[in-house]
Design goal:
345 residues, alpha/beta, Rossmann fold, 2 domains, 7-stranded mixed beta sheet, 13 strands, binds NADP nicotinamide-adenine-dinucleotide phosphate
Length: 345
């Protein structure tokens, strides 16, 4: 029902009060294409029969900023495409992916809790997804007349029947890109204190080791998870020194990959008695809402260069857009749309 209302509203056939007001910062737009400022940017052309689709599947997904900045990117590229967001239960993920493929969507993003599950559901895994065991981007492809797999964007008419879901991971590269471009930190040779060993912390630790970090110090509330991650890193990336606990002396970078800081009442994610922030050159907080957590503010006050996790979100999305469209992502436009969505600026 909600989907039907959404479709009707996209066509301009439903008025604002018929849709849950809480999900909107909506002003009625004379063009039916703009139905939700959190979900779309203004498009030149209204949705038509030739419009192509991509989407993010997650649960929950209502908070997602991806539609705002992905649609801004699509509009800037002049594509008659739309990026939507769907609440998908993990039990339905297989049929949801199959449905998107059957309807000739160009691709998908997957967010919590689907990234690991999707690795078992796609037909082919890119090396990026195989390396981290998780899929955050799917590109739908079809077999062309020469027997090569081509992205569905390559077929202007109905694509050939033989199709596949090709899984990628753009999260890991986005972490390193954010560290380089937003914080000026080069991973190779760096000593890093990593707080958190959940999904994002694990990906960060493995990627930092893969990219030549000299030493990793892992701290996690559940110590056994940090220990298991340390074992995995020692096996896969023996050139990186890895220890569970705080470094005895300075570090080039400290990174918060815990969820502490999302709420103002949260405790700090690290023990500053065990490791003073002033001993660190740079601090990266994967959290981007709020823009400055209490921990990031303390790192600033201690003299660290700092950045929040907005860049990570932007860069993983930009890489997905490039996989789908085959074109460079219009990063400035996408960043502005993301900041507008997240911070209202
Ligand atoms: P996750 O898998 O649920 O992991 C949560 C991490 O936080 C674990 O290390 C967990 O420790 C720790 N933690 C949770 N509550 C804690 C508490 N009360 N005290 C101490 N530690 C606690 O989540 P995730 O996907 O890795 O996400 C981690 C953070 O990164 C979140 O803040 C998320 O918003 C952020 N993130 C940002 C981006 C981005 O694009 N910027 C992308 C992904 C994630 P235990 O192992 O002991 O439970």
């Amino acid at each position: 029902m909600a989907l039907r209302r959404r479709v009707l509203f996209m066509r301009g056939e439903v008025s604002v009060p018929a849709v849950r007001k809480t999900s909107f910062i909506c002003t009625l737009h004379p063009r039916p294409a703009c139905y939700n400022q959190r979900v779309t940017e203004s498009f030149q052309a209204p949705i038509g029969g030739a419009t192509r689709y991509c989407a993010v599947f997650g649960s929950p997904v209502r908070h997602s900023a991806s539609p705002a900045f992905q649609n801004a990117g699509l509009a800037a590229l002049g594509l008659d495409w739309r990026y939507l967001a769907f609440e998908v239960d993990p039990e339905d993920l297989r049929v949801a992916i199959a449905g998107a493929q059957a309807m000739n969507w160009v691709g998908l993003n997957l967010t919590l809790p689907h990234k690991l599950l999707a690795a078992d559901l796609v037909d082919a895994l890119d090396e990026s997804a195989r390396a981290w065991g998780a899929v955050n981007t799917i590109r739908f492809e079809a077999l062309d007349a020469s027997g090569a797999w081509q992205p569905l964007r390559s077929f202007s008419d109905t694509p050939p029947r033989v199709r596949r879901a090709h899984g990628f991971n753009t999260d890991a590269d986005a972490i390193v890109r954010a560290l380089r471009e937003d914080l000026g930190v080069e991973v190779a040779g760096a000593t890093v204190l990593l707080l958190g060993a959940g999904g994002a912390g694990r990906t960060a630790a493995l990627k930092l080791a893969a990219d030549g970090a000299a030493a990793l110090f892992l701290v996690n509330r559940t110590r056994s998870k940090a220990e298991a991650l340390a074992v995995e890193i020692r096996t896969r990336f023996p050139a990186t020194r890895v220890e569970v606990g705080y470094p005895g002396h300075g570090a080039d970078l400290v990174m918060n990959a815990t969820s502490l800081g999302l709420r103002p009442e949260d405790p700090l994610p690290m023990d500053e008695q065990a490791f003073p922030l002033r001993e660190c050159r740079a601090a990266y907080d994967m959290i981007y809402r709020p823009a400055t957590t209490r921990w990031l503010a303390r790192a600033q006050a201690a003299g660290c260069r700092t950045a929040n996790g907005l860049g990570m979100l932007l860069y993983q999305g930009a890489a997905a857009l490039e996989l789908w469209t085959g074109q460079p992502a219009p990063l400035t436009v996408m960043r502005a749309a993301l900041e507008r969505n997240v911070y209202g600026t």
